Amino acid sequence: LKASRKKDKHIRAILLLMKRKSRLILALDVSSRERALSLARSLESYFDAVKVGYPLILSEGIGIIKEISAFCPVIADLKIADIPNTNRMICEAALKAGAKGIIAHAFPGIDSLKACVEAASSYDAQVFAVTEMSHPGAMDFMAPLAEKLARLAVDAGADGVVAPATRPERIKLIRSIVGSKMIISPGVGVQGGSAKDAWDAGADYLIIGRSVTSSENPTASLKRLVSFPEQ
Ligand code: NUP
Question: What global pTM score does this model have?
Answer without folding.
Answer: 0.92
